[in-house]
Design brief:
The chain is α+β, with helices and mostly antiparallel strands. It contains eleven helices and twelve strands.
């Protein structure tokens, strides 16, 4: 069911319930008030007739004649007067006797002073009447024809008004629901026109104050992220293609030249060495791309556990020195470790090791002395690791770009690389809710600082 129809039905049901409760309350209140007023009217009529009988000494036959003449009117009250011994003193119509008084009823009236009840369509009232030192029991019964007709008219009026109101509410509710959801319909129409080729399109955010505007703003933010992701992906694919094409082209050129004519063993060895070098570049690039892809996973897909950063740093140092025996990596602790938690984080050991190796390798690769100093310290909430070298440094113009994938600055002439290492390192640090920044002076060295939160 569409939201518009659901809102219309819910709105109609709510109003219908309120109207029904209101109509029932009005009808019951009117009925109760009518009944109470008619009991009072019966009481007055009975006293009037009793006074005519007892005070005016009007003969019972005359009173009965008056009753017969008014029996077809709207208030044909039937009155009976008894003494306390249940002796009938007067009755409007003994043969009809609508109430059918008995001794038990008379005793109840004497005991309670007054009673009232319904007998079919009749309302009956009985009360003890004190007159000139004597007590009389008077009963009166009649059908409130006028009042009941009014109640019936009121019931039909309320029912007609109820159903007419429900129809009106349903129509108006459908209209207002359509108007209220029009921004959503417009949003849906606009979204249907957005595809991979038009990610720069945005939906109308309206006045920015209601829930629909919040939805539009959130959707536009999602489109911003998607557009950035697509742009990054395009750039990434383009850069990968370029990086892969260069070593492959070099390998093919070397091998094709080797096949063109007979060469000496030394020439073949040199060609094979060049091909191996290019193949190693390709292997390194593939490994870097694999690590970059792993660091791009959603956190829920990556295994995290308690990791001691000093152990990861030592392992990364060992691997770097094994791969590059000419490098030097010195690890120092600026504070005494009083608690393992001070240098422990919740993280992925493999990814952290990859990040540290990249920073260490960069520091050694771009330093003449091939040396990197790693200092580890901590404070109340974070562990701080600094990687310092005495290399060629990075210009201020390039500092803002060094964490972009495949970006290589002016220092590429000093050492080869893929341009993925630092961007990979940034991704890994972000994945661990940490921070990384760099400070550098050209020809004065570079310091990379990584902060990671404790467990």
């Amino acid at each position: 069911m569409k939201i518009r129809n659901k809102l219309t039905l819910l709105f109609t049901a709510l109003i219908a319930t309120l109207l029904l409760v209101f109509a029932i309350a009005v009808f019951l209140l009117y009925s109760k008030n009518r009944e109470d007023e008619y009991y009072k009217e019966l009481h007055k009529t009975a006293i009037t007739k009793a006074n005519l009988l007892l005070d005016a000494k009007i003969a019972p036959e005359v009173l009965q004649l008056i009753y017969k003449r008014t029996a077809s009117d709207l208030y044909p009250e039937e009155v009976a007067v008894y003494d306390k011994q249940f002796n009938l003193l007067y009755h409007d119509a003994v043969k009809v006797d609508k109430v059918k008084e008995n001794r038990a009823m008379i005793d109840e009236i004497i005991r309670n002073k007054e009673i009232s009840f319904n007998q079919g369509d009749l309302q009956v009232v009985g009360f003890l009447y004190h007159h000139q030192g004597k007590d009389y029991v008077i009963t009166a019964a009649a059908k409130d024809v006028y009042g009941l007709n009014n109640a019936k008219t009121l019931k039909y009026t309320l029912l007609t008004g109820f159903f007419a109101s429900i129809i009106l509410v349903f129509i108006s509710g459908r209209f207002f629901a359509k108007q209220a959801l029009k921004p959503v319909s417009d949003l849906v129409s606009k979204v249907e026109d957005i595809n991979a080729k038009s990610l720069d399109s945005r939906v109308n955010e309206g006045d920015g104050k209601d829930e629909i505007a919040e939805l539009a703003i959130t959707f536009n933010r999602m489109l911003d992220r998607l557009e950035n992701s697509f742009d990054t992906q395009k750039q990434f694919v383009s850069s990968i293609s370029h990086e892969l094409r260069t070593p492959l082209a070099a390998m093919l050129a070397e091998l094709e030249l080797s096949l063109q004519k007979e060469r000496t063993i030394a020439d073949y060895r040199e060609a094979i060495a060049h091909a191996i070098e290019d193949a190693q570049k390709l292997a390194k690039l593939c490994n870097s791309l694999l690590n970059f892809a792993k660091a791009s996973y959603h956190p829920s897909e990556i295994s995290f556990k308690s990791v001691r950063l000093d152990e990861v740093l030592m392992d990364a140092r060992t691997q770097i020195l094994h791969q590059n025996p000419s490098y030097k990596v010195n690890l120092i602790f600026e504070k005494e470790i009083e608690d393992d938690d001070f240098i422990s984080v919740k993280g992925n050991e493999y990814l952290l090791n990859t990040a540290f190796m990249n920073v260490m390798e960069n520091a050694c690769k771009f330093s003449e002395d091939r040396e990197c100093l790693v200092a580890i310290t901590y404070h109340a909430e974070k562990t701080i690791i600094r990687f310092q070298d005495n290399g060629i440094g990075i210009s201020s113009e390039e500092l803002s770009n060094i964490f972009k994938p495949f970006y290589r600055g002016e220092n590429k002439q000093y050492a080869s690389g893929t341009g993925i290492g630092l961007s990979l390192c940034k991704k890994i640090v972000d994945l661990h809710h940490g921070e990384i920044w760099v400070s550098s002076v050209q020809h004065g060295g570079t310091v990379f600082t990584i902060e990671l939160p404790h467990l």
